[in-house]
Amino acid sequence: MLRRINEALPGLVFGILLYGVVLQLAGVWFVEDKLYYSIGLWYGIIIAVGMAINLATVIFDSVAMGDSKHANRIIIAKSLLRYAVVVILFFILGYFDFGSLLMAFLGVLGLKISAYLQPLLHKNK
Which of 44, 69, 84, 104 could join 40 via S-S bond, C-beta 3.0 to 4.6 A? Predict the structure, then answer.
């Protein structure tokens, strides 16, 4: 299903999840509250996957639209909405304190890490 939206999306999501597993396995041994650490991390990873899927669908819809002025407005509006949702989700996590905000932030960075690793992971496909 993800490949229909964007050919690179399954690899991007896989990279985000792999990053989450690496952070989980590497860091959980060094913290006192393992559940707090894990909830924060996977909260961030889920947000990163959601952002990747949303970004891919916005790009797909904008390219299919054809009208570049209208497409640019849609891209900007949906990008601002995406970041507003992330801020709200982080606020909820911090307000209710059910997971580590630092690990949630590092989980969201999985989107960037996975995006930067895509050329290395898919050199000659």
Answer: 104
For 65-123, the pLDDT digits (tens) are 877 788 888 899 999 999 999 999 999 999 999 999 999 999 999 999 999 998 887 76
Amino acid 33 reads D
Q: What is this structure's pTM?
A: 0.89
Tens digits of per-residue pLDDT, 40-73? Answer: 999 999 999 999 999 999 988 888 887 778 888 8
Q: How far apart are CA 3 and CA 42, in angstroms?
A: 23
- Taking residue 15's Cβ as centre, other Cβ atoms within 10 Å add up to 24
Please tell me whether residue 105 adopts helix, strand or coil conformation: helix
**89 CB-near residues (< 8 Å, 6+ apart):** 43, 47
Which burial class, exposed, middle or buried, applies to 71 when counting CB atoms under 10 A from its CB (0-12, 13-18, 19+)?
middle
Distance between start and end Cα atoms, the chain: 20
